[in-house]
Please model this.
Amino acid sequence: MHPSMDFGVWVAAALTLFIFSFLYKDNPLYKFAEHLFVGVSAGYVVVQQFWQVLWPNLIEPATAAGTPDRWKFFVGGLFCVLLFTRLFPAIAWTSRYTIAMLIGTFAGLKVTGFSQAEVVEQVRATMVPLWNAADLGGSFNNLVLVVGVITTLVFFFFSKEHKGAIGATARVGIWYLMISFGAAYGFTVMSRISLLIGRSQFLLDDWLGIVRF
Amino acid sequence: MMNLLPVVLTAIVGILIILSFFIPHPIVAEPAQVLQDWAIVIVASGYVLGAANVYKINGEAAIKQQKDWIYKWVLLGSMTGMMVIGFFFSGGTQFLGDGSPFKWAYDYLYVPMQATMFSLLAFFIASAAFRAFRIRTVDAALLAVAALVVMVGRVPIGNLMTHGLPESIQLPTMANWLLEWPQNAAKRGIAIGAGLGVMATGLRIILGIERSHMREEA
Amino acid sequence: MAFGDTLEKVDRRWIFLVVALLVVIPLLFPLRLPLAVSGPARNFYQAVEAVPEGSIVVLAGDFDPASAPELMPMTSSAVRHLFRKNVRIIALELWEGGPPLVDRILHEIGDEMGKKYGVDYVNLGYKSGREAVMPSFGNSFSRTFPNDYSGTPVGKLPLMAEADNFTKTALFVNISAGYPGTKEWVQQVQGRFDVKMVSGSTAVQAPEIYPYLQSGQVLGLLGGMAGAAEYEKSIEYPGPATKGMDAQSSAHMFIVVLILLGNAIYFSRRRANR
Model:
């Protein structure tokens, strides 16, 4: 066993154990670590936004004499300042222009992005041959795919009551959805356990030096 | 009129962004690029605004000595400390350079705490699996079977348990088939449905039919 | 059923303890269970392997410390694989907590393999803006990232003079923890700029990427720590993901047992009540 001689690693290990102590019971050490985490995260994000975004993409070009079309950066800066008026109720209404601009940008990006990648490409990829005598396995898989996509879409069609043929089709869609939720659950378990494995590797390797990963 | 201006702005911006997808000519592409440049810095400002809000809410709670007020001071103190270190004592744009105090705080405070917070979920998912996962219907049984096949098939023990069997019925093969075909089909159905929904909502916003984002907070 | 009642009332902290032991013990005493490489992971490997030597690849590390156990091994393996082929890397990050993690990987492996910053690899750092960054980046790397991670103007970095958009790059590797991530890159960049793309993603997100895999929008997929371990096996460089798979196996089997046990108690109680 070769415990770390780095003070920082011991601080990290202590905070890790403070948070794990919540598993036994909520306690002051956990509460301290929880609030410390929120404060450190918020402070980190503010500093990062300033030095890695606002400074190179706004402040530096706006203040540098040789920047072409400097007015664009001043307008961008104005939008940013207007956003902060939300803190003052009397003038908060001016932030609506910034929000309008932002919402318009993201709505436009989402409409084009989703229509191309989620609708057109996904529908195209569902148009697969259902019968290929040379590849029966592939044919079966394609049939599973096409039936699954259609029945799932029918399930989400709520403009008509799910009775009769539509009801039966929707029922098959539910089966496909249950399989996908089960797979999602299995993967979620894998993900959560991986996070615990990562923390354990830190405690056993970086902190206590019992084993090398 | 003042209420209409933001709606018109959203419409102009949204239509310009959509057009830029189809028209690469600079007369459309350059204004669209500028809008995206502005969006980047506005989102960054949003984070700073959020931090100001954190000060406001937690500062009130700390000063009025509401529940857990001592911990609120820990929160405010650590947030202020990070900002002071990051703005003034960590070399400006090289604030994340090796050896900087800010990087030390990132490595030994931020990283372990964030990682550990999320790793708690492993324990709760195990507890919930025992207490809440009940197969009450046929649909739930399908869910359970899929979950069990994926959980065992995607890890080495699933490979070990069935490696003597024909490849087509080995657990890893079954798990992969399940993921690539039926699961994929359902996810694609959801993706197409969601895609249509996002297109509809996006167009409603751009055309000014949907204005809930323009409402001021009470 | 008295035994069932007893089990159902067991304090959940005992379950927590068993989970902890089933994770720690295999880490201390590895079983080295054999790992099979799945199709999507093989495709990921082959897509990277097909990149011509000396090309430029964009690597987006969109994750933070919470997903590091799953995604850092994948990122390390991808960087190592690319550097082995003398491929040059332009890296960026869209998650606030991620840049120092990606930077550490690039420098550690770069130093180990004799790579020079600015010539063989560049870390552009972080940008906020989520989807707004993506098409902007696709149009011009330098306009979106005027400085790199350390604040150096990108004009001073030789590698950035060779590629300012996706037309000059051979592959886009996205390591993604959620939003913004692979889905958004596919929506905003893959189709618009006709980019060859592979994805390494957390296990939670991986099922959602399968439709893109089947449609060809994404050429390969690594899902979670298992995917990372499969990729480590493919490049013949076992790392923390491979070493974590025994613990993953034992914890998964325990959860399977808990699900079956919980339902066995439920069904026997239902039968007794009829």
Q: What stands out?
A: The domain at 39-238 of chain C is CATH 3.40.50.10160 (Rossmann fold). The longest strand of chain C covers residues 56-62.
